[in-house]
Write a structure and sequence with these properties.
- The structure holds 3 protein chains of 3 kinds.
- By secondary structure, chain A is an all-alpha fold.
- Chain A folds into 2 domains: 125 residues; 352 residues, no CATH class.
- In chain A, strand 1 and strand 2 form a beta hairpin.
- The longest helix of chain A has 32 residues.
- Helices cover 76% and strands 3% of the residues of chain B.
- In chain C, helix 1 packs antiparallel against helix 2.
- Chain C is elongated.
- The chains are: A mainly alpha, B mainly alpha, C mainly alpha.
- Chains in contact: A-B, A-C.
- At the A-B interface, helix 15, helix 16, helix 17 and helix 19 of A face strand 1, helix 6 and helix 7 of B.
């Protein structure tokens, strides 16, 4: 029975998406069933994986070298859980958000389940080439979603996103080809044993694979496509992209680094990735601080927050592993809340210039509260998931004696406080003239409370970390 | 003992937390209900604290332990030291709530204000009952976040600047504190607060690291405790409404910092280790410098609340000084000042608020002849000011007396000089105000009686008389002094 | 697989050429073409790798190339549609 769960997780959303497509019009409620069912499946999977053994589905029953496996271990299950929870919230949020426009609504309700299925497939894949296919599926489902915002400039953003994503996946594929030439297998579990070390081609393949993923994950030198795409998309889509899609790339990096590529990576490479991460944290936070549009602030914040997850690579101890993954979860939830809250503000004000936020309060109090609460997690202040992750990463940096990462962690937290409070303070500012009545529609309860629920969850993640970290377990292979 | 009884610290915490949640949920719409909930929560908390006080006095220790992270627990406990802080905060919260309700009558965004106000007190309760440094830190940062909206409540440019300064200082301090805590965890694992400290054995093997950690912890706490040169946020934060100033100066923020220093010295490092590391003297000197510096700066302030703010900078360091002298008598003086300073300073800020609300008086030279128009308020102000100077038998005198005795016992005679200098400086900046208020003729022709409204005057009188009472009845068995003596006895006789 | 294989040279050349084009060209159409060059280089390399087994070609890389080409074609089509929409003056937005 449990072997069917991974399969269902991939196929149910796909079939739902295709169904929407064939139907030709928007049916929002069916997606609610799908996301609910998806969550149920993940919870069942969670129970199965909690025993310590991964759940493996052998598609077609082909046996070892040829087979395509879907595998759910602790890490994959946590990512699936994050995806499933966010999917429920975002699907609810999207009902009012995409309600009126027939065409874009249909496109959204078609593409979103496809993206969900692709993400699930990516997390469950145990095969380098399968991962390539799912990465492309994720990209091709995600980019059209960016376009749903309508204005013409998102076309530029989407195009740039597409070009970078394609380049990234081709570089990744080149690495996979090179690795296959040496190891003769694509299965993640078989690769470490099959990979000959010593030749130059192995590390080169690893470098290509990692570079490809970094481009997809928008890590510092390759981040340039992200802010415009994430900032320009509709709020629900921005939440999906920032919380899940780029996270999927970093997930892959964690997975491959500790598994398939383990014999090929070096300490220097780890330090280099850490350096990229730390630079991303500092640069992204600084850029977020300088933006004058709300959604760009949040988008640059994603650039920064992804950097924290890279700090695992130089430290590579249990605390760093747990910290990096937990940061992924906490950031996913908090960032989705931030984007949904920002979407509500945008919905009401009709624009997202920061000055427009001056003195707004009453109709958006709940959304602002959500923004503030999610901000607590982003800043890494207690009690919140972000804080738990930061604590673990700090512990790791002191444990390994690599104190320079401590500096990045602390500075990143303070810079994050800078850009979050810069937004919040505007809401408290007294406007010089009496608060004008804006005629924008007030975001409904569903929109306000889904954002708040996610923000509360981001705080709550600080209180329930023990079972989740338990599920995650130690670094696969015991670390080096 | 039943589980519910054992979990008292949790209920005390939740009484404010839930009040905050309900107030936020209610929104601006129903002021009467909100006020009712606010007062009910304050009263319930007071009752709960009273029950706990009886329990702790009888020797019971309340501990709640919730696992938070692998290897790290959220620990809430009520020992004698917690009760000292918690009773003060609970009592003054009630007074401040009543005061704030009257003070903010008909002003906008009250739900927001009272929501964060309750959150603030919840954080303070958490700080007071925190059973380890990790828990302490959680609430310490929560206090920062909950206070910020109160500081900028008015929404003016000036308030925003004050808010920014406040955040820069406190978040920076929080980061330093976090570093210290993480380092300590790495070195010694999770540390519950235990009288006498738990690090003594490690003192010999890692003196340097422990000194560094101590410096980080005290710097982090020192920001909130307004130790010079980390005090910069406090005087600018006085732009906040008067009840917030009372909260900052007497009930919550500054006290949280001072309380944290006490915890670190007593219950993490232990007095012996602190002395062995040579940090006790450093702390004593830092506190002394702050005492003198704050008083000197206070003299030149023309704004009433600003002068009071610098006075706080100076007075709160008495607590750190008492702790740093590391001897029972000085400890009594320092700890009891936690309560005494709180009561006196809240009286003074309440009075300043009364002046500002009733007659729009902010600056000291506008106070001429105010004693005739507002005799009760001015009488309370006089009580507070004289107490601060240390006139016997008022509360401030008791603190200074024990500090002085402690300094002699510790052989640190220079501290007597600091105390004397501080007393003289206190007199220099308080007596002219009293002289103006009582003996100068009013500037305006109108000198009819115009007292503050009851809602403001009531809490002011309450606080003023409480400040008087803790001094007059210091010898009774239920005074803060008696409690502190009990506490110090436990601390020094392991 | 000894000596310098002209096919390997061609694959590496295509990839390098494509990467260079991606970095140098600004116009999205040129960039899309550059990406296709990289893609062709990678596919060629995969076909070369299929020769690694002594007895006949390895089917796995062939399967990979086929899948890769399908993905590349559809992604390119999508990219071209986007470029067209970008080039077109603002109008109804149908495509």
């Amino acid at each position: 029975m449990t072997e069917a769960l991974p399969v269902l997780l991939v196929f149910v959303p796909f079939l739902a998406g295709l169904g929407q497509f064939v139907l030709g019009r928007a049916v929002p409620w069916s997606q609610q069933f799908v996301s609910g069912f998806n969550l149920l499946l993940v919870l069942l999977l969670l129970r199965a994986v909690a025993g310590g053994e991964p759940v493996i589905a052998d598609l077609g029953g082909w046996g070892e070298p040829l087979a395509i496996h879907l595998q759910a271990d602790g890490l994959a299950t946590l990512m699936l859980l994050l995806t499933a929870v966010l999917a429920v919230a975002i699907s609810l949020y999207a009902i009012p958000a995409f309600g009126g426009h027939a065409r874009s609504a249909w496109q959204f309700w078609t593409l979103w389940p496809l993206l969900l299925g692709s993400l699930n497939a990516l997390f469950l894949s145990r095969d380098l080439f399968n991962i390539y296919v799912t990465l492309e599926l994720v990209t091709l489902a995600a980019i059209p979603l960016v376009l749903l915002a309508g204005p013409r400039k998102t076309v530029d953003a989407a195009l740039r996103y597409l070009l970078f994503a394609l380049l990234g996946s081709l570089i990744y594929l080149a690495g996979v080809a090179l690795l296959y030439a040496q190891a003769g297998t694509l299965d993640l579990a078989l690769l470490p044993a099959a990979t000959p070390t010593g030749s130059l081609a192995g590390p080169l393949a690893a470098a290509l694979i990692i570079t490809g993923i970094l481009i997809k994950g928008a890590i510092l030198p390759f981040h340039i496509w992200l802010p415009a795409a994430h900032g320009g998309a509709p709020a629900a889509v921005s939440a999906i992209l920032s919380a899940l899609v780029v996270k999927a790339a970093i997930y892959l990096l964690l997975r491959l680094w500790t598994g398939a590529l383990e014999p090929l990576v070096s300490i220097a490479a780890g330090q280099l990735l850490g350096l990229l991460g730390a630079s991303a944290v500092l640069f992204g936070s600084w850029q977020a601080f300088r933006q004058s549009r709300l959604k760009l602030v949040v988008a640059y914040s994603t650039v920064a927050q992804l950097g924290y997850m890279l700090l695992f690579f130089p430290m590579a101890v249990t605390a760093a592993w747990q910290g990096a993954v937990y940061h992924g979860l906490a950031h996913g939830v908090a960032k989705a809340a931030l984007f949904l809250a920002a979407g509500n503000l945008l919905y009401y004000l009709g624009q997202d210039r920061l000055e427009a936020l001056r003195g707004i309060d009453r109709p958006l109090a709940v959304s602002l509260l959500a923004f503030g609460l999610a901000g607590v997690s982003i800043m890494g202040l207690p009690p919140s998931g972000g804080f738990t992750a930061k604590w673990l990463l700090l512990t790791a940096s002191l444990q390994t004696g690599q104190w320079w990462w401590t500096a990045a962690l602390v500075a990143g937290g303070l810079l994050a406080a800078g850009y979050i409070f810069r937004v919040l303070r505007l809401a408290f500012l007294q406007s010089a003239e009496p608060a004008e009545r804006r005629d924008g529609p007030v975001p409904g309860r569903l929109m306000a409370w889904t954002a708040t629920a996610l923000a509360l969850l981001a705080i709550g993640l600080g209180l329930i970390s023990a079972p989740l970290l338990d599920l995650l377990g130690d670094i696969p292979g015991g670390g080096s | 003992m039943s589980l519910a009884y054992q979990a008292m610290p949790l209920w005390v915490l939740l009484s404010s937390l839930l009040a905050a949640a309900v107030i936020f949920a209610l929104g601006e719409g129903r002021p009467r209900l909100r006020i009712g909930i606010n007062l009910a929560a304050a009263l319930i908390k007071l009752v709960l604290v009273g029950i706990m006080l009886l329990g702790v006095r009888a020797g019971h220790e309340f501990i709640v332990r919730l696992p938070l992270m692998p290897g790290i627990d959220l620990v809430l406990q009520a020992d004698a030291l917690s009760m000292l802080f918690i009773s003060l905060s609970a009592l003054l919260w009630l007074a401040t709530t009543i005061y704030a309700i009257a003070y903010l009558e008909d002003s906008p965004n009250r739900a927001r204000f009272f929501g964060f106000f309750s959150l603030c007190v919840a954080a303070t309760m958490g700080i007071a009952t925190a059973g380890n440094l990790f828990t302490f830190f959680i609430f310490y940062e929560m206090l920062t976040l909950a206070t910020w909206p109160l500081v900028i409540h008015r929404g003016t440019q000036q308030a925003m600047r004050a808010g920014r300064g406040y955040l820069c200082y406190t978040l920076g301090g929080g980061a330093v504190l976090l570093l210290g805590i993480v380092l300590l965890h790495g070195l010694a694992g999770p540390q519950d607060f235990v009288a006498g400290g738990t690090l003594v054995e490690r003192g010999e093997s890692h003196p340097l690291v422990l000194t560094l950690i101590f410096a980080l912890l005290i710097t982090g706490m020192g920001v909130k405790a307004a130790l010079a040169p980390l005090h910069g946020w406090l005087p600018t934060a006085m732009v906040a409404p008067a009840p917030v100033s009372a909260l900052l100066h007497a009930v919550a923020v500054v006290k949280a910092g001072a309380f944290g220093i006490v915890r670190v010295v007593y219950d993490v490092y232990g007095i012996e280790l602190t002395q062995a590391l040579g940090m006790a003297e450093v702390l004593a000197i830092a506190a002394s410098v702050t005492i003198i510096y704050g008083s000197l700066r206070a003299i030149w302030q023309t704004d009433l609340k600003r002068r009071l703010a610098y006075s706080t900078v100076s007075q709160v360091s008495y607590i750190a000084l008492g702790v740093a002298l590391a001897n029972p008598l000085a400890s009594i003086g320092g700890l009891v000042h936690l309560v005494h300073q709180g009561l006196m300073k809240i009286t003074l800020f309440f009075c300043a608020g009364c002046y500002a609300e009733t007659h729009g008086i902010h600056s000291i030279d506008e106070l001429d002849g105010i004693g005739r128009r507002m005799p009760w308020t001015t009488a309370m102000f006089t009580l507070g000011a004289l107490g601060m100077i240390g006139l016997p038998p008022l509360a401030g005198f008791i603190s200074k007396w024990y500090l002085g005795l402690g300094a002699v016992a510790a052989g640190q005679l220079w501290v007597i000089g600091v105390l004397l200098a501080s007393t003289v400086l206190n007199a220099i900046y308080f007596l002219p105000i009293l002289h103006r208020a009582w003996f100068r003729p009013p500037k305006q022709a109108d000198d009819s009686l115009a007292e503050a409204p009851v809602g403001l005057l009531g809490p002011t009188l309450f606080a003023g008389f409480a400040a008087l009472a803790v001094g007059l009845f210091a010898g009774s068995g239920w005074s803060p002094l008696a409690w502190v003596e009990l506490l110090v006895q436990r601390e020094y006789s392991p | 697989m000894s000596g310098i294989d002209p096919f390997a040279l061609a694959a590496a050349g295509l990839m390098a050429f494509g990467l260079y084009g991606f970095c140098v060209c600004r116009h999205p159409l040129r960039r899309l073409l550059a990406i296709n060059l990289v893609g062709n280089g990678v596919f060629l390399a995969l076909i070369l790798i299929a020769r690694r087994l002594p007895d006949g070609p390895d089917p796995v890389p062939h399967a990979m190339v086929l899948t890769g080409i399908v993905i590349a074609v559809s992604a390119t089509a999508f990219g071209l549609a986007l470029i067209r929409r970008q080039a077109r003056p603002e109008d109804d937005g149908n495509d």
